[in-house]
Amino acid sequence: MSASAKPPAFDAADPLGIDDLLEPEDLAVRDTVRGWAADRVLPHVADWYEKGELPGIRDLARELGSLGALGMSLTGYGCAGASAVQYGLACLELEAADSGIRSLVSVQGSLAMYAIHRFGSEEQKREWLPRMAAGEVIGCFGLTEPDHGSDPASMRTHAKRDGADWVLNGRKMWITNGSVAGVAVVWAQTEEGIRGFVVPTDSPGFSAPEIKHKWSLRASVTSELVLDDVRLPGTAVLPEGAGLRGPLSCLSHARYGIVWGAMGAARSSFEAALDYAKSREQFGRPIGGFQLTQAKLADMAVELHKGILLAHHLGRRMDAGRLRPEQVSFGKLNNVREAIEICRTARTILGANGISLEYPVMRHATNLESVLTYEGTVEMHQLVLGKALTGLDAFR
């Protein structure tokens, strides 16, 4: 651009011009997912949230499959083979609707499908991935236990060999999609160390009671997994998924989607606050004309778009094969923390109306309290970065 060229007009929805970094294919993915969410989720999600249910989840999964949103960054077996940036944009748009919808997609694609795709046998991939990519089969990922969240190495779920079979016993907790899943990827202690297993949920001894009375992620299916002498053939084990390396690499892939998704919840809350500030009048004029409100909006916009830039940068690194787990921790720590603060600030602009489900702000804020914890708590990501910065391990 020459020095005399006129810059484009300021865009309040994209103040940094981040869209200029996106390819036409990226924008097409974003717009397609945004349109689907506006049509299929936004008109209903407040009611789902209030009732604490996600009706029609299997239909939603099939629709998401038809969009190519399930396992979309994976290649082959019916998966879309999209870029990391495109997957991230999809996560942002889904979480702008609701964190529960993004969680459905993340657990399906970045945990269950990713585990099978990366660590499974060719037979396991052919059996499960095409149906999961189409949304015909919903998957879940069993790692967290009632007494072992941040310390998965101490899990008590165990698998023992019995002839050519494996027999699994144990409990998993806070499992998204659990009670509607057709297949579960379950991690268990064995005499050979931690191993992953592909568990059809109709196996005798497997059950998944749904967890109720949640005040967060209410438009999401969350369950306990119960394994009582679940007998599996020797072919059920993930052949390449030995040790903690397996589940931790899956978590890193899922955390990447959260880096983007959290900014979707933040964007939705910011937009609600901005629209409200321009129309709500106090003392004879819109509250958006007062300095304190403008300061809040400016600070929210700065953190929102810094977070989107960070997500975009990490996506480009993932596409180039250069993204490290510590960098994912950097993104998850920053973006979820800032998204919660944006939601809280937005609530103050909306005043008492901010607690109403007529607006999305409180729903996003309470959802993000779960997002802050799952896929690694704030403290765990701080310690990951602390170790990377100092070279000293402070986990124990």
Write the layout of secondary structure elements.
Layout: H1 24-40, H2 45-51, H3 57-67, H4 84-97, H5 99-119, H6 122-133, E1 139-142, E2 158-162, E3 165-176, E4 183-190, E5 193-200, E6 206-207, E7 222-233, H7 245-279, E8 281-282, E9 285-286, H8 291-319, H9 325-350, H10 361-373, H11 378-390
Helix pairs in contact: 1-4, 4-5, 4-7, 5-6, 5-7, 7-8, 7-9, 7-10, 8-9, 9-10, 9-11
Describe the structure.
- The protein has a four-stranded antiparallel β-sheet, covered by helices on one side.
- It has three domains: 18-133, Acyl-CoA dehydrogenase/oxidase, N-terminal domain (Butyryl-Coa Dehydrogenase, subunit A, domain 1, Orthogonal Bundle), CATH 1.10.540; 139-236, Butyryl-CoA Dehydrogenase, subunit A, domain 2, CATH 2.40.110.10; 245-390, Butyryl-CoA Dehydrogenase, subunit A, domain 3.
- Strand 4 and strand 5 form a beta hairpin.
- The chain is globular, with a radius of gyration of 22 Å.
- Helix 4 (84-97) packs antiparallel against helix 5, helix 8 (291-319) packs antiparallel against helix 9 and helix 9 (325-350) crosses helix 11.
- The protein has eleven helices and nine strands.
- The longest helix has 35 residues, at 245-279.
- The chain has 396 residues and is an alpha+beta fold.
